[in-house]
C-alpha cells in the first residue's frame, strides 16, 4: 500500500497566509497539516509516500526530508500547477505508483487517525470517505449513492438534495483499479479543456464503466479541509 499526497496547489483562497508558505505547512494546533497527515500515515503502517508538488515545492521537500527521514518519499513535480488541477496532478504519479494500491490524500485535509484506520480496514473495494453531517454548498464534492452505498456520482455540480454527503479528499484505490484509473486520467488530459478537472472526474468515468466505488461513512469523526481563512480558524478549534 502506498500513499499519494497532492500538494501542488497555490492555496490562493487562503492568501496572504500562503504568500510565503505552502498551505500544507500551515500549523493547526501547533502542528503543520502535512506533519499530522504523515504521522497518521506512518502510524497506520504505510511508509511509501508519493508527493505531487508545484507551488513552493522546495519547502515541502525540505520539510519531508528533515522531519520524516525514514519515510520512503518520492516526489513528482507538476510544473503546470498554476493552470491545472488535481486530475492532472494525480495522472503524473503513474510511473511511481506502478500498479500498487494506494490511499490518496488532498494535502489540505486535517484528520484524526481513526479515519485512516477505518478506511484501511475496509474490504477489497475502492472507497471514498464521506461525511454526511455537513452543510452542502457549491464548493463541496457531493456524493450520490445507491442503497448499498455504491457511489453513482461524486462532483461539485450534484444538487445538495440528491447527495448523502461530502467526499473529504481521502480515498482508497485498489490495485485492480489503478491501471484503468490512470488510463482514464490520460484520456481526459489529452484535451486542454479538462486540465482543470478534479480527479473525481476520472472516478466517475470508471463508475459509468461499472467499476465499483463505495462510500465509507466517517460522519462524527474529526476532520476538516483548509480552503479559506475561515476554514483555517475553524480547524484550530477542532484540533487544539
Structure characterization notes:
The protein has one domain (2-238): Alpha-Beta Complex (Spore Coat Polysaccharide Biosynthesis Protein SpsA, Chain A), CATH 3.90.550. The model has no long low-confidence stretch (mean pLDDT 95). The two termini are 30 Å apart. It is of the alpha/beta class and 240 residues long. α6 packs across α7 (200-208). It has helices at 33-43, 57-67, 86-91, 94-97, 113-120, 175-189, 200-208, 229-238; strands at residues 2-7, 27-28, 31-32, 48-53, 72-77, 102-106, 109-111, 126-131, 142-145, 151-155, 165-173, 213-217, 223-225.
The total beta strand count reads 13
Mean pLDDT: 95
Distance between the termini: 30 Å
Treating each run of at least 4 consecutive H or I residues as one helix, how many helices?
A: 8
Instruction: Provide the structure class.
Output: alpha/beta
User: Ranges with pLDDT <50 over ≥5 residues?
Assistant: none
**Main sheet overview:** 9 strands, mixed
Going by CATH, the architecture would be: Alpha-Beta Complex
Radius of gyration: 17 Å
Strand coverage percent = 25-35%
Chain-wise SSE layout:
Blueprint: E1 2-7, E2 27-28, E3 31-32, H1 33-43, E4 48-53, H2 57-67, E5 72-77, H3 86-91, H4 94-97, E6 102-106, E7 109-111, H5 113-120, E8 126-131, E9 142-145, E10 151-155, E11 165-173, H6 175-189, H7 200-208, E12 213-217, E13 223-225, H8 229-238
Parallel strand pairs: 1-4, 1-6, 4-5, 8-12
Antiparallel strand pairs: 2-3, 6-11, 7-13, 8-11, 9-10, 9-11
Helix pairs in contact: 6-7
